Amino acid sequence: MSPTTEHTPTTRPPRTTEQAETTFGIGGAAESTDMVLNIGPQHPSTHGVLRLRLVLDGERIERAEPVIGYMHRGAEKLFEARDYRQIVMLANRHDWLSAFSNELGVVLAVERMLGMEVPERAVWTRTLLAELNRVLNHLMFLGSYPLELGGITPVFHAFREREELQNVMEEVSGGRMHYMFNRVGGLKEDLPAGWTGRARGAVAAVRSRMDVYDRLVLGNEIFRGRTRGVGVLSAEAVHAYGVSGPIARASGVDFDLRRDEPYLAYGELGDVLKVVTRQDGDCLARFECLLEQTHNALDLADACLDRVADLPQGPVNQRLPKVLKAPEGHTYAWTENPLGINGYYLVSKGEKTPYRLKLRSASYNNIQALAELLPGTLVADMVAILGSLFFVVGDIDK
């Protein structure tokens, strides 16, 4: 183009008050109509068959309603038609990542009704396996949460470490996910010969590689940018909704049944047990609590292995009558499951089946906090907040 060639300027002329503005692509009723967006019930970010009904104002969430029940199988009603040996099978499935811990709640409730003392060897072995199960649960979320935010590598590390522990859990119980190793009065059988040595090796192998989450995940500026200050849950909301476990402790609620109402052998592990808390209450704090609690569960497993090795050989269960009946009455047994407080309210009429067995699962209460957490946040942060609640949908629907 020559210097003398005239051309039309590309700059926009100044705005005048007479100019009209037109918005395209929204619709005539945009100013008075909210958008309703359904996430799920089949969606990769919902940890199962969960539906979220979101009311949006542009990219911001105004209201959020968790819609549950798609996986409901009526376990509490089925408890009433099974005897006290059979209900263990129903109880260990609602949180499929915490099967051993689920079993504990129901057998502890029945043993309390019977006034039954469990052999010391069974008490310590139960504590050991509960902590190994806790690590298995937490590793799944330590790997899957970064995956939901776009980081694919950590989940491969998580499954490698899980395999180390899955192998020893499968060897001792015969089950890979649903262990069915607890019995009313103790355990199914004693530990296999040489198993404690193999378990100790698996714990050491997992511990030696746990720093990958500190470096690869917590050290990642994108992960921290997506989680710091996002989805802040206050301590008041924790109490209002009955939130428990690592999610509650990430909001500064310093409560852990293993320390505050000891069961199994936790009363003797006070020098090893560490209740991990944070004050920020955001997604990052919840992940940090989960990670640090995993480290502590490995320490507790080592302490239990030391104690089991020192115990003399002896029984791991009590002899039970052919027909087991709990006396008439009621009791409540609760445990600190990996995802939070798990409780069983057992009512007996003196028969071989429970008259009523009400399950209080951790995820059911925890997921209600979404109604508090999501309003006011961006849709882009929804997956980060949802994943940081570390829930299992079967644990919600029961």
Give the class-level CATH name of the largest domain: Mainly Alpha
| Percentage of residues assigned to helices | 40-55%
| Alpha-beta content class | alpha+beta
Question: Any idea how many domains?
Answer: 2
Which ranges are low-confidence, i.e. pLDDT below 50, for 5 or more consecutive residues? 1-30
CATH topology of the largest domain: Cytochrome-c3 Hydrogenase, chain B
**Cα separation of the termini:** 75 Å
Please tell me what the overall shape is: globular
Protein name: NADH-quinone oxidoreductase subunit D
Subcellular location: Cell membrane
Region (Disordered): 1-20
Family: Belongs to the complex I 49 kDa subunit family.
How would you characterize this protein structure?
- The protein is an alpha+beta fold and 398 residues long.
- It has 2 domains: 35-67, no CATH class; 75-396, Cytochrome-c3 Hydrogenase, chain B, CATH 1.10.645.
- It contains 16 helices and 8 strands.
- It has helices at 75-79, 87-91, 99-114, 120-148, 153-173, 195-208, 211-218, 221-227, 235-241, 246-249, 257-260, 283-310, 362-368, 370-373, 382-387, 393-397; strands at residues 35-39, 51-57, 60-67, 182-183, 186-187, 329-337, 340-348, 356-360.
- A 3-stranded antiparallel β-sheet has the order 1-2-3. A 3-stranded antiparallel β-sheet has the order 6-7-8.
- A hairpin with a 2-residue loop joins strand 2 and strand 3 (60-67).
- Helix 3 (99-114) runs antiparallel to helix 4, helix 4 packs antiparallel against helix 12 (283-310) and helix 6 (195-208) packs antiparallel against helix 12.
- Its main location: membrane.
- Keywords: Cell membrane, Membrane, NAD, Quinone, Translocase, Transport.
- It is found in: Cell membrane.
